[in-house]
C-alpha cells in the first residue's frame, strides 16, 4: 500500500520515493541501462522472448492500491481522478519504477511523463508506447494502467535479457485521459500533439472543486519543463488497453486488433428555470429545469434508438440546484455524450440533439446554454501498423478480431503525428468504468507479449 509521499521536485532532481510496503518495492538487481555496454546486439529472431506476467500483475496490483476503493461485493476498484492527491501518489509510484529501471524520465508542461530507454542509434526517433493512469471516480485497475505498466514490463524484459534496440523505447503516461475531472478527455495527449494550446489547457477548471488545471499540476509537483506541444514526435505509437466492452469475450477471442476510434461529442447544458414552492405553485406556472433535463435525457436515448447501429448516447452527470424535496429546482447542469464511428452519423445525432434541446426549452419556458466539452472526429489507425499488430498476435498463437474502439484513447491523439495502432484484451462481462472491471491474467500477459513483439519489430526497424 502506498503511504504519504514526501515533497519532491521534478525534472532533473530525483523524486523521493513514495513510502511503500516492502512487498511492493521491486528491489532485485538495479537494472541501470548502459547502451552498447555488456549487451547483446539484437539477434534476428526473438521468437521465444516473453514478458514476465507475474511481475506485470504485481505492478498492476500495487498501482491499484493507490486510491483503492471497495465495492459491496469486495470488488477492488480505483479512484484516481486527474491531478488529485491520489493521482500524484500513483504518478510517484510509477516514476519510481521508471527510475529504478534506469530510464530517462522527463515531464512536459501539461504533466505528461515520458520514460526512455535509449537505442543504439541516437539519430533514429524513438518508438513510444503508453496510456494513462488517471481513472474515473468509480474506475477499475486496468483501464489505462495496463498500457503503461505493460510498456514498463516490455522495457524490463529487454533490459533483463540484455537486448538493445536500434531505436529508443519510450513509455509514457498522459495527463487527464479520462476527462472526468477536466474536460476534454485525452487532454494531455491532445496538448502533446498540438491540438489544444497549453495556455487554454492550463486554464481548464475542474468540475468538482473548480480548481485550475495549471494550479493542480503545480500543487502535485508535475508541472514539467519539456515543451508541450512536443518539438519532435516518436517514429510510431502503440497502446495496449483493455477492450472495456463485451465483443472479444462474446467471440471468445484473445486479441482485439483496433482499426480506429469512434468520434466523440460531449456537451454540457446549463438549464435555468424558476425556483418555486412545491406546494403553492400551480403546475401551469412552472418553469422546471429538471423536467426539461428529464425530457432531454429521454430524447437522448431516443436518438440512439432511432439511429440504431452502434450509435451510443449517454447522460452521465446531472447537478440539480438547490436539490430539495419541496422546491421546484432553479437550475440543472447536465452532460450529454454522443459517439459514432461515422462522422456523418455523429453529425446527424448532434443535429437531432440540438433540435430536442430547442423544443424542450420552448415547451417548458426554460433557458438552456450549451457548451462543447469535447469534440473529436473518428480516427483510423495506420493500416501497416494495424496489420503488424494482427500478424504479431497470430504469430504468437492468439485468436484475433479487427474492431473499432468504443472508448476514447490517447492513441487517437498520437495518430495525428505518427503511425499508430492499439492492441485490445478482453474485459470480463464487458465491464469498465466500474470497480468490477477485470481482465484474466492470461489475457493481460497475451496482450503484453503482443505489445513486446510489435515494439521490438518497430524499434529495430529503420523505416
Ligand atoms: C474515456 O475513457 C472515454 O472514452 O470517455
Ligand atoms: Mn483508458
Ligand atoms: Mn477510461
What Rg do the Cα atoms give? Answer: 23 Å
Spell out the helices and strands N to C.
HEEHEEEHEHHHEHEEEHEEEHEEHEHEH
- What integer is the average pLDDT? 92
Number of helices: 12
Number of strands: 17
Helix proportion? 25-40%
Distance between the termini: 44 Å
Inertia-based shape: elongated
Task: Indicate the structural class.
Answer: alpha+beta
Can you lay out the helices and strands and say which pair or pack?
Blueprint: H1 53-64, E1 68-70, E2 76-78, H2 85-100, E3 104-107, E4 113-117, E5 127-131, H3 145-160, E6 169-173, H4 187-192, H5 198-202, H6 213-220, E7 236-242, H7 247-251, E8 255-261, E9 263-272, E10 276-277, H8 289-307, E11 312-321, E12 327-328, E13 331-340, H9 343-364, E14 367-376, E15 379-380, H10 383-395, E16 400-405, H11 410-414, E17 420-425, H12 441-459
Parallel strand pairs: 5-6, 5-7, 7-17, 8-16
Antiparallel strand pairs: 1-2, 3-4, 4-6, 8-15, 8-17, 9-13, 9-14, 10-12, 11-13
The structure holds glyoxylic acid and manganese (II) ion (MN) (2 copies).
The site of glyoxylic acid (GLV) has 4 residues, from loops.
Amino acid at each position: 500500500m502506498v503511504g504519504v509521499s514526501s515533497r519532491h521536485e521534478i525534472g532533473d532532481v530525483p523524486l523521493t520515493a513514495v513510502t511503500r510496503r516492502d512487498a511492493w518495492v521491486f528491489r532485485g538487481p538495479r537494472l541501470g541501462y548502459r547502451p552498447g555496454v555488456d549487451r547483446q546486439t539484437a539477434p534476428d529472431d526473438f521468437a521465444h522472448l516473453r514478458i514476465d506476467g507475474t511481475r506485470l500483475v504485481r505492478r498492476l496490483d500495487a498501482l491499484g492500491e493507490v486510491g483503492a476503493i471497495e465495492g459491496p461485493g469486495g470488488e477492488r476498484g480505483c479512484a484516481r481522478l486527474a491531478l488529485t492527491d491520489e493521482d500524484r501518489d500513483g504518478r510517484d509510484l510509477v516514476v519510481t519504477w521508471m527510475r529504478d529501471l534506469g530510464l530517462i524520465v522527463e515531464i512536459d508542461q501539461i504533466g505528461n511523463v515520458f520514460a526512455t530507454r535509449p537505442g543504439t542509434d541516437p539519430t533514429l526517433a524513438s518508438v513510444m508506447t503508453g496510456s494513462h493512469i488517471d481513472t474515473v471516480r468509480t474506475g477499475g485497475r486496468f483501464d489505462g494502467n495496463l498500457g503503461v505498466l505493460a510498456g514498463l514490463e516490455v522495457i524490463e524484459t529487454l533490459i533483463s535479457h540484455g537486448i538493445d534496440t536500434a531505436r529508443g523505447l519510450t513509455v509514457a503516461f498522459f495527463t487527464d485521459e479520462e476527462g472526468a475531472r477536466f474536460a476534454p478527455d485525452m487532454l494531455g495527449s491532445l496538448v502533446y500533439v498540438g491540438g489544444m494550446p497549453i495556455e487554454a489547457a492550463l486554464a481548464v477548471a475542474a468540475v468538482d472543486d473548480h480548481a485550475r488545471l495549471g494550479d493542480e499540476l503545480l500543487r502535485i509537483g508535475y508541472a514539467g519543463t519539456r515543451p508541450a506541444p512536443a518539438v519532435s514526435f516518436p517514429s510510431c505509437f502503440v497502446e495496449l488497453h483493455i477492450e472495456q466492452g463485451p465483443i472479444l469475450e462474446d467471440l471468445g477471442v484473445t486479441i482485439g486488433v483496433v482499426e480506429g476510434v469512434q468520434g466523440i461529442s460531449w456537451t454540457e447544458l446549463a438549464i435555468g428555470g424558476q425556483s418555486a414552492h412545491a406546494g403553492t405553485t400551480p403546475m401551469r406556472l412552472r418553469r422546471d429545469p429538471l423536467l426539461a433535463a428529464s425530457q432531454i435525457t429521454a430524447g437522448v436515448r431516443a436518438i440512439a434508438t432511432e439511429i440504431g447501429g452502434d450509435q451510443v448516447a449517454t447522460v452521465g452527470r446531472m447537478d440539480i440546484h438547490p436539490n430539495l424535496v419541496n422546491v421546484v429546482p432553479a437550475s440543472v447542469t447536465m452532460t450529454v455524450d454522443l459517439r459514432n464511428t461515422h462522422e456523418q452519423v455523429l453529425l446527424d445525432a448532434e443535429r437531432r440533439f440540438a433540435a430536442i434541446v430547442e423544443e424542450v426549452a420552448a415547451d417548458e419556458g426554460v433557458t438552456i446554454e450549451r457548451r462543447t466539452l469535447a469534440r473529436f472526429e473518428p480516427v483510423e489507425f495506420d493500416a501497416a501498423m494495424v496489420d503488424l499488430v494482427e500478424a504479431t498476435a497470430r504469430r504468437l498463437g492468439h485468436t484475433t478480431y479487427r474492431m473499432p474502439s468504443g472508448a476514447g484513447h490517447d492513441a487517437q491523439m498520437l495518430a495525428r503525428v505518427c503511425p499508430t495502432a492499439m492492441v485490445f484484451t478482453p474485459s470480463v462481462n464487458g465491464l469498465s468504468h466500474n470497480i468490477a472491471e477485470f481482465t484474466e491474467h492470461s489475457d493481460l500477459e497475451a496482450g503484453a507479449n503482443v505489445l513486446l513483439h510489435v515494439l521490438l519489430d518497430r524499434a529495430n526497424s529503420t523505416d
